[in-house]
Write a structure and sequence with these properties.
Helix content is 30%, strand content 39%. It contains 4 helices and 6 strands; from the N terminus they run ααββαββββα. The chain has a 6-stranded mixed beta sheet.
Length: 148
């Protein structure tokens, strides 16, 4: 039985995150379209073009010793040769190694993401990624000024 387009897009989306976890820059590069791509990492400006986008991933991979994504709330919408995936990235990452060589402290982060894919002759390729941080309730409370 052949897989549906939704299943193929879900697989392409999962592969994107698994490739980041492995730090496989060459594979990650092959997942993106060759032109007109864009990316917004949480807190970063808009990155446009293959050079800027892939350079950002090289930088992230070079400065992240450990990262793992637990995806939740994954939703796929198909519109012809374009697919929109929204999801929540539950990220666990490790800081730089300490002097003893041990991985630094693990940090959790919650990001909502939108990944846009386009169908090509080589399968579904990433056209755009946009990640936005989710503020924890404690973060929002700290930003509020006390009432008089």
């Amino acid at each position: 039985m052949s897989r549906t387009d939704v299943e193929l897009v879900e697989e392409a989306n999962t592969t994107f995150y698994e490739t980041m976890e492995r730090g496989d820059f060459e594979k990650l590069s092959s997942l993106w379209l060759d032109e007109d791509i864009s990316c917004i990492h949480p807190g970063w400006p808009v990155l446009s073009g293959r050079g800027e986008v892939l350079r950002s991933y090289a930088l992230i991979m070079a400065n992240t010793d450990y990262i793992q994504f637990f995806l939740t709330d994954v939703k796929v919408s198909l519109h012809g040769d374009t697919a929109l995936v929204s999801c929540t990235e539950n990220i666990l990452s490790g800081g730089p190694a300490e002097e003893s060589g041990q991985l630094g402290p693990l940090v959790g982060q919650l990001v909502v993401a939108t990944n846009v894919f386009r169908r090509t002759s080589d399968g579904w390729k990433i056209w755009s990624h946009h990640g936005s941080p989710v503020l924890a309730e404690n973060d929002a409370e700290e930003d509020e000024e006390p009432s008089p």
